[in-house]
Amino acid sequence: MDRQADITAMRRAVELAARGLGATSPNPVVGCVVTDASGHVVGEGWHQRAGGPHAEVHALRAAGVLARGGTAFVTLEPCNHTGRTGPCAQALIEAGISRVVYAVADPNPQATGGADTLRAAGIEVGQGLLEDEAEAGNLAWLTSVRTGRPFVRWKYAATLDGRIAAADGTSRWISSADSRADVHRLRAEADAVVVGSGTARADDPHLAVRGVEGAVQPLRVVVDTEASAVKPGARVLDDAAPTLIAVAEDADTALPDVVRLPRAAAGGLSVPALLDALHARGVRSVLLEGGPTLAAAFLAAGAVDQVVGYLAPVLLGAGPNALADAGITTLTDALRLHVTDTARVGTDLRITATIQGA
Questions:
Q1: Beta-carbon-side half-sphere exposure of residue 265 (alpha carbons within 13 Å)
Q2: What is the 3-state secondary structure (H, E, C) of 193-246?
Q3: How far apart are CA 244 and CA 255, in angstroms?
Q4: Contacts for 254 with CB less than 8 Å, ≥ 6 apart
Q5: Dihedral sign, CA of 120, 123, 124, 125?
Q6: What is the Cα–Cα distance from 69 to 99, expressed in whole angstroms?
Q7: Phi/psi of residue 51, each to 5°?
């Protein structure tokens, strides 16, 4: 076996998987490359939408009879159950594949076991090739399966000295047009976009995806504890995307599409209850765009998995910070981040990081 050729094929499978971001929930994103017996690529595929054929099926269809005796490179362990589609492990067996290499084991107890089924059928199986790359590409779904709640990505834009607005409240625009366009990409990858009452009052945000071709609109969620921030006629209530208003159990409101949740001891709504309610609605990934108070509540609840900060080359010296009090009183309790990516976006610097130990 040519290890470099295997790496090249799996890296291509990871690239293919990314094409499904934002369109496959509550299923994972998966990519597959099929090579023939001599190692030539004869089929490619990715999971394109929930309920549709899985990546392996697309790749096998493209390969046809050339798949017999070949190898399938898959970013996630082939599934072993029948849902809206049949088990991919069985499809690989029937296609005559002789070797399967997958990157990440499937943590879903309903779907795992594909590798054992393949081995029982006499197929050579390898695991772990480019596991970190495939894991990063499927981070949202894997997190949701492992934790039983949606993956949460907190996004914010700030000046280089950490301000999200000037002292007079003006904030448009701190970040560049390129950064704002990049945020729409993040929205398109998410199942839900969440803001708080402060953002709703200050900005009357729309929260729908713009400028991303073929995007599936995420659920727009406003955390409005007292049911006082979202008024009839608010932009978030239009028909561009579905909307959910989260209010306290005792709040008085006549708005449609409301979910009532318990209050948190420290004020506001219970973050775990909110995430449970969203998970029950099929939400597996959340883009948290709320202001400093809501971000602090999520962080204090241990419910932030990834941070994406857009830092603009601007200094203000005064104004609200990106993060409010999250209950951290000493440096030893600080949440340390592991930076996974840095990039120039327009005139800004985008930093992507995960919380160490999360």
A1: 2
A2: EEEEHHHHHHHCCCCCCCCCCCCCCCEEEEECCCCCCCCCCCHHHCCCCCEEEE
A3: 10
A4: none
A5: negative
A6: 8
A7: 90, -15
Per-residue pLDDT tens digits for 315-343: 999 999 999 988 888 999 889 999 999 99
Q: CA Rg, the chain, in Å?
A: 22
Closest Cα partner for 157 from 299, 350, 317? Answer: 350
Count the Cβ atoms, other than its own, within 10 Å of residue 148: 10
Distances 347 to 151, 171, 173, 249, 339 between C-alpha atoms, Å: 29, 16, 12, 44, 20
Three-state secondary structure call for residue 258: strand
- In 3D space, the residue among 284, 270, 230 whose CA is nearest the CA of residue 260 turns out to be 270
- Give Cα separations from 142 to 61, 89, 107, 227, 285 (angstroms): 27, 20, 7, 34, 10
Structural tokens at position 266: 């420290």
Tell me 173's DSSP state: T
From CA 113, how far away is CA 242, in angstroms rounded?
36
3-class secondary-structure state, position 62: helix
pLDDT digits (tens, 9 = 90+) for 53-93: 999 999 999 999 999 999 999 999 999 876 666 789 999 99
Q: Which residues pair with 151 in a beta bridge?
A: 285
CA dist list (Å): 259 to 39, 222, 265, 288 = 53, 10, 19, 18
Encode pLDDT of 162-210 as tens digits.
999 999 988 888 999 999 999 999 999 999 999 999 999 988 999 999 9
The catalytic residues are 56
**Is the backbone of residue 135 left (phi > 0), alpha (psi -120 to 50) or beta?**
alpha
Residue 254, Cβ density class (10 Å: 0-12 exposed, 13-18 middle, ≥19 buried): exposed
> Cβ distance 112 to 77 under 8 Å?
yes
This prediction has a pTM of 0.91
Tell me the backbone φ, ψ of residue 289, rounded to 5 degrees: -110, 10
Residue 248 DSSP label: E
